[in-house]
Design brief:
single chain, 5-stranded mixed beta sheet, alpha/beta, RNA binding, Alpha/beta knot, 60s Ribosomal Protein L30, Chain: A
Length: about 260
C-alpha cells in the first residue's frame, strides 16, 4: 500500500483531472466514487488502476469478507489518503472518502447478433441515462447503446445514477446507424418510441423474443433518420393533461411492457 498526503503528488493530480471529459478521453481512464459503486466493480470483477481511500474507508471496505479476498492491501495500486485529499478528489456534497480509477474499455465495434437492446438517441441528461441503464439491467436487457451525441457515460453523475448496473451489462457508445445495421443483419427488429398517437400503443404490441427499442432525446425525440429505419413505431398513451413523459420513465414503461416482466 502507498500513502499520499500531498495535493501536489502526480497521482493525485492525475486522478483529479479525470473529472474532465477531455482528460478522460486522452488517458482512457475514469473515476468512480463511493462504497456501492466500488463494491460492484470489485465483484464484477473489473480491473482497476488505483483504489484510493482514507484509512477508515479502506478498513470499512475490507471489513466485507466478500471483498477482502479480492483486494491485496500490499499492492501499490492501493493508496491511503488523508481527509483533505478525499475532499479534494470528491465530486459529491458528502464524500464517502473512497475512489477507484478504472480503464475505459469501449469496443471499436460490437455485433448485435442476439438479445434485447435499448438504444439512446442523443439523450443529454445524466440522471435519465443512468436510470435507463439501471432499469435495463433490472428488466434483463442485454445492453444499452448510446449515440455519440448522448451524455458521456463516464460523467460522475451518470456513473452514480447507474448504481453499479454499468458493471452488469454492456453500455456501448456507438454510431446508431452502425448499431441498427448490425441488428438488421441479424434479423433483430428495431422499435422506436414516438410521441405520436398514430403509432401503435405499446400495450397492444406483441414484442418478439429479440428486439431493440430506441428512446429519443428529451427535447426532440428520436431523429428522423432513425425513424426511417425502424420496423415498428410505438406510442405510450397519455390519458391525463401532461404533454409527455420524462425520458427515463417512458423508457422504463417500454422496457417492462415489451418483455412483460411479471
Amino acid at each position: 500500500m502507498q500513502e499520499i498526503n500531498s495535493m501536489n503528488n502526480p497521482t493525485i493530480k492525475h486522478v483529479r483531472k479525470l473529472q474532465q471529459k477531455k482528460y478522460r478521453n486522452q488517458e482512457q481512464e475514469y473515476i468512480i466514487e463511493g462504497f456501492h459503486l466500488i463494491e460492484e466493480a470489485l465483484k464484477a470483477p473489473k480491473r482497476f488502476k488505483f483504489l484510493l481511500g482514507t484509512k477508515e474507508a479502506l478498513d470499512k471496505l475490507v471489513a466485507n469478507p466478500e471483498l477482502a479476498d479480492l483486494l491485496n492491501l500490499n499492492s501499490s495500486k492501493i493508496i491511503q489518503i488523508n481527509d483533505s485529499l478525499a475532499e479534494h478528489l470528491s465530486q459529491t456534497v458528502t464524500t464517502q472518502e473512497i475512489f477507484m480509477v478504472l480503464p475505459i474499455n469501449q469496443p471499436g465495434t460490437y455485433s448485435f447478433n442476439y438479445g434485447r437492446w435499448v438504444i439512446l438517441d442523443g439523450l443529454a441528461d445524466p440522471g435519465n441515462v443512468g436510470t435507463i441503464v439501471r432499469t435495463a439491467d433490472a428488466a434483463g436487457y442485454n445492453g444499452v447503446v448510446l449515440s455519440p451525441y448522448s451524455v458521456d457515460i463516464y460523467n460522475a453523475k451518470v456513473q452514480r445514477s447507474m448504481q453499479g448496473s454499468q458493471f452488469h451489462l454492456p453500455v456501448i457508445r456507438q454510431d446508431i446507424n452502425a448499431a441498427i445495421a448490425s441488428l438488421k443483419e441479424n434479423d433483430i427488429p428495431v422499435l422506436v418510441s414516438l410521441l405520436n398517437q398514430n403509432a401503435q400503443s405499446v400495450f397492444d404490441y406483441g414484442a418478439p423474443a429479440q428486439f431493440a427499442i430506441v428512446v429519443g432525446n428529451e427535447a426532440h425525440g428520436v431523429s428522423a433518420s432513425v425513424i426511417e429505419q425502424a420496423d415498428q413505431e410505438l406510442y405510450i398513451p397519455i390519458t391525463g393533461k401532461a404533454e409527455s413523459l420524462n425520458a427515463a420513465v417512458a423508457a422504463g414503461i417500454l422496457m417492462y411492457q415489451l418483455v412483460q416482466v411479471k
